[in-house]
């Protein structure tokens, strides 16, 4: 890498690197006061039924409204927050705010096609001793029904320390909360292993969807996963759908749900109700 850069290039490279490291360290230390100052905001991305494109769910996605650096995506801070433990406070806020917002949408429009809200839970947050209790109390204070909540957890969570995790997953399901494996296919779990886990939904990672129209192998692989998941009574959400052809191919495979820029990007809460109403079959045929 340094070869051919020349001395000036190498020095610039080193100072850029140092600058980037300082910025990352700065962000990391600012996470604590960001929680106290409530600098986090949520966007929501629609999840649709592939067959009729009705919006039946939304995923809450956190952003950091940084006072100096503007709106930051999770890419810039979630890993650091996981490392220094601030993800527990951030995740708690996300859970409460997502449920509050969802309950408000249900109250505003009792006929809404919205049935559930998906909330990402980091491994560290899930492993907090009182996580199940946190979920229960967040539901209660939002006046939200447990059936409305879908928790997205990672493959790595269910692979490690399985006994404790399974016990908590069972407790959550006993409440009526559902659980999804996020980014399925990027970790090392197998479907047969997952079937022993008390989970309801697989979110098939975008990297699997990207090539289904261009690679016969990739198409066959996704087709097989969707079929097997169906036989195991797991619902499937395809992530990162960007083209109409991908929606059609996945629908034909029997994949029930999809999410991606083809339908909608993550949106501010004010923009959700109109989009949901416009995608209702009655509205489409009217
Ligand atoms: P994720 O849970 O897999 O969320 C989907 C990500 O893919 C989102 O990025 C979304 O904007 C993006 N996406 C959706 N459709 C498309 C598409 O068609 N094309 C492309 N290129 N991208 C698409 P985002 O919002 O930047 O979030 C990134 C990750 O950060 C999330 O991946 C999730 O792992 C994490 N994250 C977001 N919010 C939270 C949170 O509240 N708590 C925790 N622990 N993690 C979160
Ligand atoms: Mg997710
Ligand atoms: Mg995902
Ligand atoms: Mg993903």
From TrEMBL:
Q: The organism sits in which domain of life?
A: Bacteria
Coiled coil stretches, renumbered = none
The organism is Actinoplanes octamycinicus
Domain EAL, chain residue ranges per copy: 24-280
The protein in question is named Diguanylate cyclase (GGDEF)-like protein/PAS domain S-box-containing protein
């Amino acid at each position: 890498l340094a070869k051919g850069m020349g001395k000036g290039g190498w020095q610039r490279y080193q100072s850029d690197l140092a600058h980037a490291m300082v910025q990352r360290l700065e962000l990391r230390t600012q996470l604590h006061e960001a929680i106290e100052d409530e600098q986090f905001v949520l966007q929501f991305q629609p999840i649709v039924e592939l067959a009729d494109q009705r919006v039946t769910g939304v995923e809450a996605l956190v952003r950091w409204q940084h006072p100096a650096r503007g709106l930051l995506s999770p890419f810039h801070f979630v890993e650091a927050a996981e490392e220094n433990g601030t993800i527990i406070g951030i995740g708690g806020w996300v859970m409460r705010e997502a449920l509050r917002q969802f309950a408000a949408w249900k109250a505003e429009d009792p006929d809404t096609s919205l049935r559930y809200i998906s909330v990402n839970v980091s491994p560290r947050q899930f492993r907090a001793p009182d996580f199940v209790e946190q979920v229960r109390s967040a539901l209660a204070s939002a006046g939200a029904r447990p059936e409305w909540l879908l928790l997205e957890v990672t493959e790595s969570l269910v692979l490690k320390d399985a006994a404790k995790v399974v016990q908590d997953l069972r407790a959550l399901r006993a409440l009526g909360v559902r659980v999804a494996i996020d980014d399925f296919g990027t970790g090392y779990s197998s479907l047969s292993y997952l079937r022993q886990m008390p989970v309801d939904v697989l979110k098939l990672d975008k990297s699997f969807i990207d090539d289904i129209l261009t690679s016969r192998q990739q198409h066959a692989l996704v087709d097989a996963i969707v079929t097997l998941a169906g036989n195991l009574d797991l619902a499937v959400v395809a992530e990162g759908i960007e083209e109409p052809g991908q929606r059609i191919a996945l629908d034909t495979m029997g994949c029930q749900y999809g999410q991606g820029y083809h339908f909608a990007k993550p949106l501010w809460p004010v923009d959700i109700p109109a989009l949901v109403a416009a995608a209702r079959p009655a509205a489409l045929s009217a």
